[in-house]
Amino acid sequence: MTVDYRSRSFWLDDLPGSLDPRPPLRGDTQVDVAIVGGGYTGLWTAYYLLRLDPALRVMVIEKEVVGFGASGRNGGWCIGELAAGPDRQQRESSNEAARRLLGALHDSVDEVGRVADRENIDCGYAKGGTIRLARNQAQFDRMQAEVAHHQRTFGLTDADLRILDAREACSHLNATSVVGGLFFAHTAALDPARLVRGLGEAVERLGGTIVEQTAATAIEPGRVITAHGTVQAEVVVRATEGYTGTLAGHARTLSPLYSLMVATEPIGEDRWAEIGLSERQTFADDRHMVIYGQRTADGRIAFGGRGAPYGYASRIDPAIEQRSRIHDRIVSSLVELLPVLEGVAITHRWGGVLGVPRDWYPSLGFDRTSGMAWAGGYVGEGVSPANLAGRTLAELITSTDSPRTDLPWVGHESRRWEPEPIRWLAINGALQVMGQADRAESRSGSESLLAKLMWKLMR
Length: 459
Fold this sequence. Notes:
- By secondary structure, this protein is of the alpha/beta class.
- It has 13 helices and 18 strands.
- Helix content is 35%, strand content 22%.
């Protein structure tokens, strides 16, 4: 059966060149490092391994094609933060460790740009920062508390993160109902598919091997089992993110949650003069049911949001990814945010799954005794953290001295998700609560205590 890979996102549809798959695995083989997953985490790990030790035999094993999953479908936010904020690292480690991880995440945004330049990856990288709008008083109160806390506790300055009044916020993005905003400097907008495809080519130039249309069914110490043969390896890396549940023994490791997106047709300069985003800032507001967008290099808006229901037993449904009522809600949210877009054509609708750990805490690790390594659980913020994770895994595997290998997310192990139907009830119940909280906050301007409680229970 032929798979239409380009239909999976605007980014994949817009790629120059072919998306024809590389050859699959041709029987049993042996390498030094076998990496399961041809997305950002797997490819960054391979890239830095080969930069550190060009003699290594590194193989990336991908079920479909490089960039098929979240790496080729996300919002293109290369943002220097984790879903688990620095308070979590401070509680589990120390303030100094939390500050170091923040610094490493901020640097990883720049590192993605440096590698794109070095490897001639034309991914439209533009470090314009993030504008987060407050569109009711509850959102603005949260923002002010967040900025004050991060500056006081973790040493951030206005150059990193600052509060904006309504006029300043609208100078970035001229949206409706703006009360104020927040500007975060450590974000770049980019084309995620061009980045991941270019990274795959860079890995091959360095001597790595990528096999596609090769589904791994199990990973074990010393080997990866696939339908096309077994790969023996001293080190096995799990880099499967939202698809982790397809591996034997990992049904409850990460939950796949949907995020859906749309893209507009290219927008004329007259509309852009009214909208803003002149530096290609990524943008969002502070609702609980997350929305996110960017101005693309070719003058569109790519815009997405959460809210699609979790599928029972981690079911992944391509029909939801392509067209659903949630896409209609996303379009309505975009036009409500920016009425000037009324009548602008929507050219693409797509989506994909995020990998979500039970405690919402991304992590990575390497057990030298078993040779097993992993990274992931980014909860939709993986473009930049995956770079840091892959770089760190490569340093751990090669025993390279580095300030990254003892950061507080290294070695963190999240507890497993509850069995069904508890998981289905809890996740979909939480989605309902967050939607209700947004509606209540919009009406009253007061923060939803139920939403605060739900966040504590989920984490």
